[in-house]
Amino acid sequence: MPRWKAENPEVADYLIGVCKRWRERSNCDGFRLDSAHLQPVAFWRRFVAEIKAAPPGGPFAIIPELKINPRRIGKFVTEAGFDGAYDFSVLRVRDVFGKGKDVGGLSFVNREAKQFYPEPRAMLAPIDNYEKAFTTIAREPKAARTMLALTYILTIDRVPLLYAGDEIGVAFTEVGGAFPADRDASPFLQQIKALIALRNREPALRRGDFTEVLARDSVYAYLRALGDDRILVVLNGSDVATPFSARLGGRAWKEYGLDDLVDTSEAKPPGDDAPIQVEAFGSRIVRVR
To answer: At residue 254, what are phi and psi to the nearest 5 degrees?
Structure first.
């Protein structure tokens, strides 16, 4: 990606003018800016202000790709006025759920996000990129590991970013490879649609606070909380079913009930001290009451 000399006013005028015309002609919802760290933040500050004010008006998202240390991303986003940015740190999920590495890697990424990003919920979270699909990188069972990684980005405090093929758990190189004849019958696609619908239904999964509950060996668990509504997500990157129990909000495991939000059943009644079971390379998403 060549670096434009955007500090030159004539170059800046040209680039902003081109983007204003594209916005007006396409009536698109926003721009994704490639390698935005190559241009000075002063240019982007002007770019953001003028593009957002340009016709046809209304909400407009400007999301940059910033291949710089997360410690610098938050400051860059704030000073430029961007709506968020790519959170490439989330790609650690390729090692954790794709290759069986310790879930402490995810714990580190989420602590870093709280510390350095002005608003983690405005950051885009992918499981792979357009160069190499998750399923290509992952060990067997590839489909189960891919589903686990997608469940993660669909339930953490980020904007989930799915590249073509993720939604059916495939890697492809040929045009149209993500649209096989039996696509609509894919159980994988139906499960992803159900997860997206769940996220859309549950405000806590979109706007709720994020609190880590457990990061040990292959199990990563966290709470999404919005007001009094609390949703517990437990992810198991192990090849064996794993029992889970933990104190939540200072309350003992036995004290609260759990309702499964995927199969709409009661996962645990209040007063029951038994752990919930999380299948191999599986997840549980439950409401805490």
So the answer is: -65, -25
Which pLDDT tens digit goes with each residue over 163-217? 999 999 999 989 999 999 999 999 999 999 999 999 999 999 999 999 999 999 9
Per-residue 3-state assignment (H helix, E strand, C coil) for the chain: CCCCCCCCHHHHHHHHHHHHHHHHHHCCCEEEECCHHHCCHHHHHHHHHHHHHCCCCCCCEEEECCCCCHHHHHHHHHHHCCCCCECHHHHHHHHHHHHCCCCHHHHHHHHHHHHHCCCHHHCEEECCCCCCCHHHHCCCCHHHHHHHHHHHHCCCCCEEECCCCHHHCCCCCCCCCCCCCCHHHCHHHHHHHHHHHHHHHCHHHHHCEEEEEEEECCEEEEEEEECCEEEEEEEECCCCCEEECCCECCECHHHCCEEECCCCCEEECCCCCCCEEECCCCEEEEEEC
Nearest partner of 284 among 229, 227, 223, judged by Cα: 223
Task: Tell how strand 30-33 and strand 61-64 pair up.
Answer: parallel
Contact 217/242 with Cβ under 8 angstroms? no
Length of the chain: 289
Instruction: Tally Cβ neighbours within 10 Å of residue 206.
Output: 16
Q: How many Å apart are CA 99 and CA 101, to the nearest integer? A: 6
Other residues' Cβ atoms within 10 Å of the Cβ of residue 230:
20
Integer-rounded Cα radius of gyration of the chain: 21
Q: Which two tokens stand for residue 89?
A: 């740190």
pTM strictly above 0.85: yes
